[in-house]
Structures are given as structure tokens and as C-alpha cells.
Design brief:
Elements: E1 11-12, H1 17-36, H2 43-56, E2 99-102, E3 105-108, E4 116-119, E5 122-126, E6 131-133, E7 145-146
Parallel strand pairs: 1-7
Antiparallel strand pairs: 2-5, 3-4, 5-6
Length: about 150
């Protein structure tokens, strides 16, 4: 009865250079976030570091919400803990036994170069000394461009 999620950005082979650039930026944040989720890490510190990557690329204003959250039984919302959100205002320390997502998202409005949504989402189980990514589905332009 546990809820899981799988969210990936997909594009057709006709994606513009700007779409691919923005997708790569979101993937850069996603990869770094996966590295940062560890026992002893503070949620707000993870969010702050990931903000810096988006800021470096001048796209922080297009980030839609926090970078991840806990999981519970039944669904996305039941059992989800507000105290385990990867946001700047949540100072919870990540501990073994927690299940948390990494899911950066950019949303550029219509009329902007690269308009659209970019989101990658993995679920991580925090152990004593390591973190297991249970999603096991590839992400990024090298895997998720639909051709034909």
C-alpha cells in the first residue's frame, strides 16, 4: 500500500537547443541533489545548494516548489511529513529509515525560449551509511528523447 512516483521529462526529437539546455540544467540539479541526500544532511542546506545551481544558470525564478519530500502509505499526501520537505525553511536532519524524493522542477511560461516543464523524480531510501535509489529508470536527454 505504499505510494510511489515516476516522473521524467520527455521530448521529441524536435526539441530546440534551449529546451535541451534547460533540461540539462534540471538534470544537473537532480544529479547533485541525489548526491546530497545522506544521513546527517539538513533539508535546508540541500535546498540552498541546489538553489545556487539554478541561480548560476539564471533560472531560479522558474523553480516551482521544493526539491523533494517524504513518502507515506496510501498516497502522496497521506503520511507525507511537512517536516521532511527539501525547502529552505525546513531544517530537519535526514536520518536512516527515511524515504525521500529528489524532484527538481523548472516551469518556463509560454512565450519564453524553452517554454515548458522539466522534472525528474527519484525515490531514495536512506540507510545507516548509504542511500538506495529505488527508481532505477534513466533520465536526461541521452535516454528520454522520443524519436520517430
Amino acid at each position: 500500500g505504499y505510494y510511489t512516483a515516476l516522473e521524467r521529462t520527455l521530448f521529441s526529437e524536435f526539441a530546440s537547443d534551449r529546451h535541451l539546455e534547460l533540461w540539462e540544467i534540471n538534470c544537473e540539479v537532480h544529479r547533485r541533489g541525489l548526491e546530497l541526500i545522506r544521513p546527517g544532511a539538513r533539508c535546508s542546506d540541500i535546498a540552498a545548494e541546489l538553489n545556487e545551481i539554478f541561480l548560476k544558470h539564471d533560472v531560479l525564478q522558474y523553480r516551482t516548489f521544493g526539491y523533494g519530500h517524504s513518502f507515506g502509505t496510501l498516497s502522496h499526501y497521506y503520511g507525507r511529513e511537512a517536516g521532511l520537505e527539501l525547502r529552505e525553511d525546513v531544517h530537519t536532519i535526514i536520518e536512516p529509515g527515511m524515504v525521500i524524493s529528489m524532484e527538481p522542477m523548472l516551469m518556463l511560461p509560454e512565450g519564453r525560449a524553452g517554454a515548458g516543464g522539466y522534472r525528474e523524480h527519484d525515490i531514495l531510501v536512506v540507510g545507516e551509511d548509504s542511500v538506495e535509489n529505488i527508481t532505477k529508470f534513466p533520465f536526461g536527454p541521452e535516454h528520454n528523447i522520443v524519436k520517430g
